[in-house]
Specification:
Layout (H helix, E strand, L loop, with lengths): L13 H9 L3 H28 L6 H26 L7 H15 L4 H24 L5 H19 L14 H7 L1 E2 L2 E2 H19 L1 H11 L1 H6 L4 H27 L10 H11 L11 H21 L5 H27 L1
Helix pairs in contact: 2-13, 2-14, 3-8, 3-9, 3-11, 3-12, 3-13, 4-5, 4-6, 4-11, 5-6, 5-11, 7-11, 8-9, 9-11, 12-13, 13-14
Length: about 350
């Protein structure tokens, strides 16, 4: 005799099964798209509005100046993206940017190789030390990178005799061409930045290391249980951040044909703002390389528009950027909660 164990009181929830099989709901998908591409939509709207409001905005000279000036911040933001996706922070990149520029200008007298390798070696080493202290000694990233920021600035002042000496780059050297040369009418730093972002996007989204970066940022303990090399991943991302800051400083020195000692102040905050505006969560585990590039461009467009107005003080750039960042963080928090609720 066969006994039917299925009771009318416990019906199978076919609707729930169908929803699970169908994947994320439409509101969830919309929230994810807004979180990922909201900055890009805002950038398009801002560019369109600026094009209508200012005749000189879309000129070739203005576009080129914005692109080249954005390139250096974008390279710094690239390294910062890896750090923030792991749930960390790097406050030393502004000082490393300035130090990299000075070292590159000083080394340019010995050839292009020295001008590039010296800042990469020094800034990469400082990033490596940051990573070791954070990953192995388990010190707070904020404290470690703040100390590195002060140390890098101290090294810079030592190299430049308390900032009184400015090293110049030979305008006819190949190193200067890296900063001032053009390829297909576009500045060489722009092409270098695009290439770096392509490589960065592939590494973060298509490699095992990129998976480790997301895993560490999502849940460090769970990542360790799954066998992810948590310490090595942290060390690697801070080293990458130092290398990117040093390279950006070197390219900037090639562009200015000098190592300017006063640069880099506040750049770490600009880089963090660009990364967060681009959709990367400060809590880690979620972010996009392309979003960071969009965030940089959006900040530069805002600054350019304020400059186009002319009657506004440059301090308004900081006010607008800060207000915009606050709105983005609030929107990210709301979207994240909405996705969890749905």
């Amino acid at each position: 005799m066969t006994i039917d164990t299925k009771s009318p009181a416990d019906p199978v929830d076919h609707t729930a099964q169908e929803e699970q099989a169908a994947g994320p709901s439409r509101p969830e998908r919309l929230s994810a798209l807004a979180q990922q591409h909201g900055a890009l939509v805002t950038l398009i709207v801002a560019v369109a509005a600026a094009s209508v409001g200012f005749d000189t905005f879309m000129t070739a000279d203005n576009m080129e100046n914005m692109a080249v000036s954005s390139a250096f911040l974008a390279v710094v933001a690239l390294g910062m993206t890896f750090v923030i996706v792991t749930g960390g922070i790097d406050l030393s990149v502004g000082s490393l940017f300035a130090l990299g520029g000075v070292l590159a200008a000083w080394g340019s007298r010995y050839g292009t190789a020295v001008a590039l390798l010296l800042p990469l070696a020094v800034c990469g080493l400082i990033g490596l030390v940051n990573g070791l202290l954070i990953a192995r000694a388990r010190l707070a990233p904020f404290i470690v990178t703040l100390a590195a920021m002060l140390a890098a600035r101290g090294i810079l002042l030592s190299v430049t005799d308390e900032g009184s000496r400015t090293y110049l780059v030979d305008k006819d050297s190949f190193f200067a061409t890296l900063g001032q040369g053009k390829v297909l009418g576009v500045g060489a730093p722009v092409w270098i930045t695009v290439a770096l972002f392509v490589v960065g996007a592939v590494v973060l989204r298509r490699t095992r290391f990129g998976q480790y970066v997301y895993a560490v940022g999502g849940n460090e303990d769970a990542a360790a249980l799954m066998g992810a090399p948590v310490a090595r991943t942290k060390i690697a991302v801070y080293t990458v951040s130092g290398l990117c800051a040093g390279l950006a400083g070197a390219l900037n020195a090639a562009w200015l044909v000098s190592g300017v000692t006063i640069l880099g102040s506040g750049m770490e905050l600009e880089a963090i703002s660009a990364v967060v505006i681009g959709g990367t969560l400060l809590t880690g585990g979620f972010g996009f390389i392309s979003g960071s590039l969009v965030g940089v461009l959006l900040l530069k467009v805002i600054q350019n528009v304020i400059n186009q107005i002319g009657s506004l003080d440059s301090a308004y750039q900081q006010v607008v950027s800060g207000a915009f960042l606050a709105v983005v963080v609030i929107a990210q928090t709301w979207l994240g909660r909405r996705r969890r609720v749905l």
